[in-house]
Amino acid sequence: MHMIAILMRLAWRNLWRNHRRTLIMLMAITLGAWAMIFMTALMRGMVAEMVRGGISALPGHVQVHHPDYRDDPSIANLIPMSDSELSERFAGAGFAAWASRVRVPAVITSEYDSRGVTLLGVDPVSEQGLTFVDDNPVEGRFLESVDDAGVVIGKKLATTLNTQVGKRVVLMSQDPDNEIADRGFRVVGLFEADIKAFEENYVFAGKATAQKMLRITDQVSELFVLGSDHRNVDEVYDKTVELIGDRAEVMRWFDIDTYLGSMLKVMDGFVFVWIIVIFLALSFGLVNTLVMAVFERVREIGLMLALGMRPVYILGQIVVESLLLLAIGLAIGSALSWAAVQPIKDGIDVSIVGDGLDMWGMSNMLYPELLLSDVILANVVVLVLGFLASLSPAWRAAHYEPIEAITKV
Amino acid sequence: MTAVRCVDLCKTYRQGEEDIKALDHVSIDIDEGGFVCLSAPSGGGKTTLLNAIGGLDKPDSGEVYIASRRIDNLSKGELAELRLRQIGFVFQAFNLIPVLTARENIEFVMQVQGVPSGERQAKALEILEEVGLAGLEDRRPADMSGGQQQRVAVARAIVSRPALVLADEPTANLDSKTADGLMELFRELNDHHNTTFIIATHDKRVMSYAKRLVRMLDGRIVDDVLQDAA
Fold this sequence. Notes:
- The structure holds two protein chains of two kinds.
- The radius of gyration of chain A is 31 Å and the shape is elongated.
- In chain A, helix 9 runs parallel beside helix 13 and helix 11 packs antiparallel against helix 13 (372-398).
- By secondary structure, chain A is α+β, with helices and mostly antiparallel strands.
- Chain A is built from 14 helices and twelve strands.
- Chain A has two domains: 2-54 and 261-406, no CATH class; 59-256, no CATH class.
- By secondary structure, chain B is an alpha/beta fold.
- In chain B, 35% of the residues lie in helices and 30% in strands.
């Protein structure tokens, strides 16, 4: 313990011996730490936005389907349980939110044009707040009940079809007997989505109305459950499996959208690589600083060895000096990163590159996501690698011959 | 009892194409409580002998004993421990750690030894007064004269009352009055605490304080006499 005090004192004072060099190195470490943490927050924000957009389109963290639905998402592959039975089982299960839907491929036709879309037969009450439609105001109105006779389409699709609120469109799909199932709908609302592709792909109708059109009774294509954290869905998944048994397929969101799931994993790996790369750039400066510091102090290191300080403490002194330098730089860099995130935590408008971001499933707003775990990771990685980088000059200092060091000119 | 025993020490340095014999079959016994001056012209071997006795330099051959313990075959760590606990050093130059104040420099060895803070500080202030540097305890080496720095180094060497003090030209940067004061302090420690002193010097005034004068030339002991000290 008494050695720690003297090592700290020597390391601290030696740091400020050449204050200009120390300040330059501190600036480099601070900038490096800031770049590590702030850029990671932006990248995390980008991926989180992609995941959020993806989950709102799926939607949900866990989904239930017919085992063949993923290969053939048609009317033929409905969940082999009635919607009433599903409601009965899920209503009292204590989930944050859940809803069931009819979801089939369809064609929408206006008097001018037609497009392939995904028809979503929804219960507007139970889906409230769960999907991307709620992110922006709807022109006209959204559906009011499961047997609402109108449809809500995306603004972009409305432009493509040259239609608008109040006009009629025809939706066409197939019934379970492979017969054409179609129906005329009045457009009652136009929704906007942050991801413009959604506006072209999805058409909302009342669940009962859609079931009637498709000639199915009390059956749905999918059921989705929302948990509290997209990174931790195991509890929701296990509970859903328990309720469904082996009668249908239960999947986590990242198994359904493997691209999104892998983005999260890649991001975790990328953050680590990013931190290592920044550190490697910093380490040249750090090692150079320490080598110079040792070189300048050969005689006093020799003196300390001659007076009876063990070589391991000389090594400790250089390492402590390095860790002190890193710790100060990291602390300032971490604080600056936090401060830099504060003014933009409500989002940065990146609509100038909106079309490009849309391709990646991102919206026009970027919300930086500063995670404590990333801050800790950056600090720990830099301290551990800094410790390793400082061992070489420290080892050299500890192995001087005292009499050669003390007489060095 | 013998404090230091050197048996047939040899040490050769290579200087360019030439081999310099710094120690040439040197044997010497120094009793506990001895006050020995090693005198020699430059290159005569006195500093090399001092370094060998202090475990700072290994002889090419021969044996060194401190308090009957052979030290020339000890590891670096064991030698560091020996120097820390048993030997006080005063070097000719570059004696102090620049980033520590006078008091902290004096406390340094005691701190490494693990002496409690209060005791350390009290001893450091007391010894600073003894070497005539009271009031300068918070000055760093860069703010002190060469003589003051040397006195701090002497204070550090003797503050923890080591059994053996090795001093290489300790008065080289001191004026005659301060040098006398320092030598009297050394003698007092020698008389009252039975501390053994081995001092390498050119200074005749310093030699006059010695109880035993050992003259060296070309790495050999050429004269070894007891004398009445000043």
